[in-house]
């Protein structure tokens, strides 16, 4: 079954041009993150990673700076460090 999720992600990459995709909040795009987790840990972990990303990847977020480091606070109140945040969002 993990192969089905991987195929869906590959089809997404093939048929949805990058210019049409929403800009990801994270350095590693949601599809790349879910793909890597699914490949290395299996379907259940991949689905869990997908759920986490769907719950956190909203345009409603706050970017704050604490002690010189930027933090992203998502709409679901999860906090991500600067090292995980996309350069597009940081700039």
Task: Provide structural commentary.
The protein is α+β, with helices and mostly antiparallel strands and 91 residues long. It has one domain. Helix content is 48%, strand content 16%. It has 4 helices and 3 strands; from the N terminus they run H-H-H-E-E-E-H. It has a 3-stranded antiparallel beta sheet with strand order 1-2-3, with no helix packed on it. The model has no long low-confidence stretch (mean pLDDT 92).
Report the uncertain regions. Answer: none
Number of domains: 1
The helicity comes to: 40-55%
Q: How many angstroms does the end-to-end distance come to?
A: 39 Å
Helical/strand content category: alpha+beta
Number of strands: 3
DSSP strand content:
15-25%
Q: What is the C-alpha radius of gyration, as a whole number of Å?
A: 14 Å
Which series of helices and strands comes N to C?
A: HHHEEEH
Report the principal-axis shape: globular
């Amino acid at each position: 079954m993990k192969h089905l999720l991987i195929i869906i992600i590959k089809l997404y990459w093939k048929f949805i041009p990058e210019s049409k995709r929403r800009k990801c909040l994270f350095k590693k795009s949601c599809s790349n993150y879910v793909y890597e987790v699914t490949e290395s840990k299996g379907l259940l972990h991949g689905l869990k990673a997908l759920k986490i990303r769907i719950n956190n990847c909203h345009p409603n977020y706050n970017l704050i700076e604490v002690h010189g480091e930027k933090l992203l606070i998502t709409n679901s109140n999860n906090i991500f460090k600067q090292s995980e945040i996309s350069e597009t969002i940081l700039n």
